Amino acid sequence: MSGVPGAPHWQLAPTSMLWEGLSTTELCQMLKDPELNGHRSPQALIEHMETEKLVLWGWNPGRHREPIPISHQHFVDLMKVWVSGGTVCPQ
Question: Among 20, 57, 75, 84, which is least packed, fewest CB within 10 Å?
Fold first, then answer.
């Protein structure tokens, strides 16, 4: 096995999608930027995080990988709070 994720439509993400090392503010701004978020509205971001198989793979990555450290439902709930609050980014 190669260790490549098995999610449909998987491909290596461009460096413009790199989250590692970003501050909370930088990540927030990236998620809000249509040029960097797949031209998604805030509501579409929630749907993407709820249903996209590649996103869901993070909670069941297999092959000795650690899953995302919070539950998927908690993650989606936090996204919903952020969107309902106007997608405000911390300063």
Answer: 20
